[in-house]
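Hi R.,

As promised on Friday, here is the backbone we talked about, encoded as structure tokens. Could you run it through your design pipeline when you get a chance and send me back a sequence?
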């Protein structure tokens, strides 16, 4: 009986992490899974409306403007630049996490700084795009663009566009704030005193998730 009690106590007394993952990282994965369901619901709703409609605005016509240059004959040039910026920020985040594994504070600061710059640049591009579309008459409840077949388009296009890209932009903004906090903590030597840079890795998971979601947003709105 004593052996059974001892065995049960050893099994349930804690000390073992599920999947051998640190607690904070596991909770981050849970959060990202729940957030993925939210984005998935948005995009599935958009896809349902999009493909149940006979005609839809042409993204090559809607998204053909570029700062300073105005209307361009190269379709999706500006959003391609936005996508490149966000992908490169994901690369610099990988390098920051790698530097954290090596306990190299100087390199973490450098690559995390570039990640923050990339995030701010992406948000600036999105702010310009929103402002430009607003001046063209596009907003929630307003859609100035015609369908491909020349018929008047419903407001579903603009409603979904501003809601989903705005929701994603909020996540990018949150990621930038988190990365700034991580930068300050790294600069103050907090992680060196702790003996690890796990917080940088958790911030990296969130940032990579934001980048991955953008791939789906880009595909849904700008390519189809």
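Update: got your reply. Pasting your designed sequence below so it's all in one thread:
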């Amino acid at each position: 009986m004593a052996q059974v009690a001892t065995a049960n106590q050893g099994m349930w007394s804690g000390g073992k992490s599920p999947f051998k993952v640190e607690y904070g990282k596991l909770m981050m994965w849970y959060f990202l899974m729940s957030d993925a369901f939210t984005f998935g619901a948005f995009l599935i709703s958009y896809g349902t409306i999009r493909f149940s409609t006979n005609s839809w605005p042409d993204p090559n016509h809607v998204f053909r403007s570029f700062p300073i240059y105005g209307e361009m004959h190269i379709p999706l040039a500006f959003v391609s630049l936005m996508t490149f910026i966000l992908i490169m920020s994901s690369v610099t985040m990988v390098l920051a996490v790698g530097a954290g594994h090596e306990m190299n504070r100087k390199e973490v600061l450098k690559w995390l700084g570039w990640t923050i710059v990339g995030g701010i640049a992406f948000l600036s591009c999105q702010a310009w795009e929103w402002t430009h579309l607003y001046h063209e008459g596009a907003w929630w409840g307003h859609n100035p663009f015609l369908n491909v077949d020349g018929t008047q388009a419903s407001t579903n296009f603009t409603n979904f566009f501003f809601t989903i890209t705005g929701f994603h932009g909020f996540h990018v903004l949150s990621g930038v704030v988190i990365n700034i906090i991580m930068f300050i903590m790294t600069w103050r030597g907090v992680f060196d005193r702790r003996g690890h840079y796990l917080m940088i890795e958790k911030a990296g998971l969130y940032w990579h998730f934001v980048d991955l979601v953008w791939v789906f947003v880009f595909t849904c709105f700008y390519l189809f």
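One thing I noticed while checking it: Residues 156-187 form the longest helix (32 residues).

Thanks again,
M.
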